[in-house]
Specification:
By secondary structure, the protein is an alpha/beta fold. Helix content is 38%, strand content 20%. The chain is built from 10 helices and 12 strands. Strands 2-1-3-5-6-4 form a 6-stranded mixed β-sheet, sandwiched between helices. The two termini are 17 Å apart.
C-alpha cells in the first residue's frame, strides 16, 4: 500500500490538543489505501484560536476533519450547520465539508452504537447504567434513550452533573415519544438500582492508568452486570476485570474508536466502508 501525495491529494485531519498520540491517522490512511482514495490524514495540534483554525482549514480546502478534546464544544460556533443529534449532545467530533462551510456531526455516539450492535448487545427494553457524567456519558445517554432502554441510571460523584444530563434526556424522550425512564444518582447510591440485569457503561477517566481502581468496587454491583462497556481503549481495566470475575461480558472502547472513525470517513466521502476493510482496520488498531 504505497501512498503517493500529489497536487490532487485531498487532506483530512484531526484538531485537538494534545493530538500527536492519536490513533486516527492509522484508521483513515488504512481505509484510503484499501479503497484507493487519494487522501491523507494528519493531526493538527491547535493551541490557540480554534475558530481561526476551522475557518482556515475550510479556506485551504481541507476535505474533512475530526475534532477531539478540548474543542468538541468550542468548535460549534465555527460551523455553518449541525446535525440534530450533535446539537442535542452539545459536542461535535466530525466536520463534513459543504459549499457553505463545515457541518458538524457526533460520530462518537454513532460509533458506540455500531460497536454495541456489532457485539450483539440489545438496548431495547434493558436497564442501562452510566458511570460518569462528562461529555462521553452525555453521548452514551442519548444512545441509550434513542434505542429505547427501559431505564437509564446516571451515576456521578457530583450529582448535579448527572441531573443536568438526566434533564436533557427526559426532554429528548418526551419530544421523540420514547419510553426511557431516567434517574440521576450519586456514585455511592448504586444500591438504589433495582434490577438484576444491567448493561453498564464506564464513562469516567478512572482506568486510563494501569494503577487505577474502579469508581465502584463492590462485587454485589458487578454481579448484576451482564455486559460492561468501558469507554477506555485499554484492555484489562479494573472495571472490566471485576465485570468478568462476576460472570459478565466486558468490552473496551476500542471498537467505538474504530467505528466513530469509520462513520466519519463514510460521511466525508458519501460511501459505505466494506466489511473486509472494517476487519482490516480492527487488525491495525489491535496491533497498534
Amino acid at each position: 500500500m504505497h501512498m503517493v501525495v500529489d497536487g490532487n491529494t485531498k487532506v483530512l485531519g484531526i484538531i485537538g490538543n494534545p493530538v500527536r498520540h492519536t490513533k486516527s491517522p492509522a484508521i483513515h490512511n488504512y481505509i484510503s489505501g484499501e479503497l484507493n482514495k487519494n487522501m491523507i490524514y494528519v493531526p493538527f495540534e491547535v493551541t490557540g484560536d480554534v475558530k481561526a483554525a476551522v475557518l482556515g482549514a475550510y479556506e485551504l480546502g481541507i476535505h474533512g476533519m475530526n475534532v477531539t478534546v478540548p474543542y468538541k464544544t468550542d468548535v460549534i460556533e465555527s460551523l455553518c450547520d449541525i446535525d440534530d443529534m450533535a446539537k442535542r449532545i452539545g459536542a461535535v467530533n466530525t466536520l463534513v465539508r459543504t459549499d457553505k462551510g463545515y457541518k458538524g456531526y457526533n460520530t462518537d455516539m454513532l460509533g458506540l452504537e455500531r460497536a454495541v450492535f456489532s457485539e450483539g448487545i440489545e438496548l431495547n427494553g434493558k436497564v442501562t447504567v452510566l458511570l460518569g457524567a462528562g461529555g462521553a456519558a452525555r453521548a452514551v445517554a442519548f444512545m441509550c434513550a434513542r434505542n429505547n432502554a427501559s431505564k437509564l441510571y446516571i451515576l456521578n460523584r457530583t450529582i448535579s452533573k448527572a441531573e443536568e444530563i438526566a434533564c436533557d434526556i427526559k426532554k429528548f424522550v418526551n419530544e421523540e415519544g420514547l419510553n426511557t425512564q431516567v434517574t440521576a444518582l450519586a456514585m455511592d447510591e448504586y444500591e438504589k438500582i433495582d434490577a438484576e440485569e444491567l448493561i453498564c457503561f464506564q464513562c469516567t477517566k478512572v482506568g486510563l492508568s494501569e494503577d487505577d481502581g474502579a469508581v465502584i468496587e463492590d462485587k454485589n454491583f458487578y454481579n448484576k452486570i451482564t455486559h460492561g462497556v468501558d469507554l477506555i481503549y485499554r484492555e484489562g481495566t479494573k472495571f472490566a476485570v471485576l465485570t468478568r470475575e462476576a460472570g459478565g461480558k466486558a468490552y473496551t472502547g476500542l471498537k467505538m474508536l474504530m467505528y466513530q472513525g469509520i462513520i466519519a470517513y463514510e460521511l466525508w466521502n458519501d460511501l459505505k466502508v466494506p466489511d473486509e476493510v472494517v476487519a482490516g482496520v480492527e487488525k491495525v488498531l489491535n496491533e497498534g
